[in-house]
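ERR on first pass: missing label on line 2. Operator R.T. fixed the label and resubmitted. Corrected input:
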Amino acid sequence: MRDREPPRIACLLIPDLPWVAVARTQPELAQRALAVAAAPGPRADVLALSPAAERAGVRLPCTVTHARAACAELEVRLVSSALEASARRALLDVALSASPRAEWAPPESGLHAAEATVYLDASGTGSLFGSDAGLAAALAARAFRLGLPAIVTVAGSRSVARIAARRLRTTWAERAADDPGPSDVVPPGGDAAFLAPLSLDLLDPPDALAQSLDRYGIRRVGELLRLPKRALVARFGSAGQELLSLARGRHSEPPPSAQEAASFDEAQDFEFPIDRVEPLLFVLNALLSRLCERLRCRGLACDSLEVQLTLSGGGRDARRIGIAAPTLDVRILLRLIALSLETHSPEAEIDAVALSTRGVPPRDDQLDFFRPPGPAPAALSRTLAELEALCGPGRVGQPEAVDTHRPDAFALAPFAPGPWSPPRENADRCRETPPPYALTVRALRPPVAAQVRAARGRPAWIRSAVANGSVVEAAGPWRTTGNWWSPEEHFAFDHWDVATEDGVVARLRWDPLHHRWEIDALYD
Amino acid sequence: MPSPQRAPRELEGLLRELGPQIQLGGHGAPPITQRPRCPTGLASLDALLSGGFPRGGLSEVAGVPGSGRTSLALAALARATGEGEVTAVIDAADHFDPPSAEAAGIDLGRVLWVRAPTERDALRAVHPMLTAGGFGVVLVDLSGCETRIGARIWPRLRKEVSASDTALIVLADRRIVHTFADLALELAPSSARFHTETGAEGAGTLLLALESRAELVRSRLGPEQRSIPLEAPSPLLGSG
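pass 2 clean. output:
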C-alpha cells in the first residue's frame, strides 16, 4: 500500500494589515510615506506605517505629530475596520481559489497584532500548480492582483509555515511597490532542518521560558534540539514540551477546515459625508472593481447586489439590485446601481457604503451538433446585464404566460434558453398546431378607454384613441372572470372582437365591476 | 520586400490568379443575395421574399394597425423558435402579447423580450445582441412610436447586422429605414373576415381571419414591386 503523503500547509501573511487595507483602496499611496492613525487629530496614535514611511525615519510607537516631524511628506489616513474586514476576506478568497480548505488564523496581540494570516490545506495541489513553489508563486500573484501584497509560504504545518513567512518580513518591506509579495517553500520532511538555524524568538515562546533559555545561552532552535528531552520537560513542563515539538516540526495542528459558501462584501467609510450621486458612484466604481476581482479569483460571477448606505443621523438605506444574468462587468453593475439611485435617492447624506453579493457560477453550456448555435453563455450574460442596465430592472427576460384567466397577465422570467430538441411527430398529432401565419394581437398597456354605444346588446359605435366610428362587425361576448375571493384582484370582463369602419380590428371589453369600456388589444 | 515598381505587377498577377475568389467590400461576409434566409413558413410570402427575411440583412415591415404586420413578423419568430433558434423582441411601445404569441406557435422559452422604455433605447439594444451573436431573428417593434428617428442610425445598424447571421426586422407604422433596408414590405389592410352561424340558441359570430395585402417595395434579393394577398387566420382555428 502506498504511504500517505505528508500534509502540506500554505500560509498567506500580510504583516501590516491596516496599511495594506488603505493602500488597497488607494493604490497611488502604495509608494508614498503613509501613516494609519487610530483617530482624527494630531495627538492620535499611529497604528501602522508604510515601508516608505519607515525608510523616511518614522518609527512606532508615535503620534501623528511626531510622525509628521520625522517626515514632512507623510500622508495620514484613519484606520478603517470596514476596509480591514474586506481585505481579510479578500485574502481568504485568494486561499479558497486554490483549495476549498482554508481558514483565518485567530488574531494575535502584541508584536503581531497588525498581521492577517490565512492557512490553506495545500496537500494534493501539486498537480494543479506543478509544485509547492508554483502554488506559492501563483497565490502571491493572485493576492497582488487583489491589491494584497502577501507573503506566501508552504511547509508541513501551520506553525512552520507562519515562521517561514515571518522570516520574510524584511524582504516584504523592501520589495518594489509593483512586485508581489515574496514566497518560500520548506521542502516536505525538512521542517526541522529549516528551523534549526533560526532564532528561538521566531517560535514565539512564552516570555518566562524565553528568558530562562536565554540565560542558559540557548538562542537557536538547533541548540534547543540538542538538549535532552526528558530534562527539558522536567524543568519547563508542558511549555517546554510544546516548544520542543514545534522546534522538531512535529507540532500537531488540525488541517484547515472547509469553508461554507460565504457572501462577498466590500465596504468603505467616508471621512466626510457624501451628498451627491457622482462622488458616490466614483467610490462605488472602485468597490465594484475590487468585488468583481475577488469573484473572478474564485471563478464566480455576481447575480444580485445588496447595496447598504449608512446615512448621517443613523439611518440606513438598503436596496437589492437584481441582475438578469451573472456578470463581472463593472460598468454594467455600476449603471444598475446608478439607475436605482436615480430612481430612489437616499434621504440623507451618506457616511458609509457597503456592497454585498453571493457568488454564483457563471453560465456554462455545452454546444452540440444537433442544435442551432445560440448565443455563447458568457456573451449572453454580458448582453443581458447590458440590456438591463439600458432598459432598467425587470424589463428584460423571457416572456411567460401566467396561469390565470386574466387577459392582460404576463410575467418575465430570467432568460435562459435551455436545450432544444425537435418536436416529436406523435406530440404534434396530439395538439393542434397553429397555422404558419396566425393572427396575433398587440396588447395595449394600459388599456385605452373607449366610449361605446350599444344597440340590441352589441357594440354599435366606438370612440377612442385607437379605433373610431361605426362597428362594422362584432363577435362576442366572451366572458372571463376570476379571483372573486379577493376584492382587490377580482376581475370580470365581457370581450368583443370588433371591426370598425376605419379599418381597425380591436379587442373591446366591458368591465362590469368598474362600469367602463376599454380596448385592451388590437388585432394586427 | 518587393520594390514599389514591382508591387503593382505582383498584385496584378495575384488578382489574376485568385480571380473569382475575390469579393469586394462586405467585411468578408458573402453578399446579401447569397446569405441564408429566415422563412416565415407561408409559401406565398416566402416566395415573394425570395426565401424569407435575409440573415445578415436589415428588413423592414411597415403597415397601419390591422394590416397584419405583427402577425407576419411573429410568423418568422415562430418558425425560427420552432427550429430551435434563439430570437429577440425589442418592444419600444410594450405591445408584445405573450399569450397571443404562444398561440401563434412561438416557443416563448427561446424569446428574449426587451421592454425598451423609448425608441432610442430600443435601437441601442440592438447593438449588444448583434455583438453577442447567436440570435436567429431580432425583431425591433417601433410601431406606434411618435419620436422621429434620425437617419444616421440605419447605416450603422445595417453595417453591424451584415457582420452577423441575424435577420434584423424593423416593424413600423410607415417606412422609416428607406434605402438602408435590404428588404422592405408594406402591408395594407383589406378586411376582417367574420363568420356568423345561427343555431337553436341564436346567432353566434366569430372572427375568422384578417385579410391584407403585402407589397414588396424594396429588395436587394430579387425583383421588387410585387404584391400578394395575405390572410392571417385566428390560431383558434388550427392549421386545418
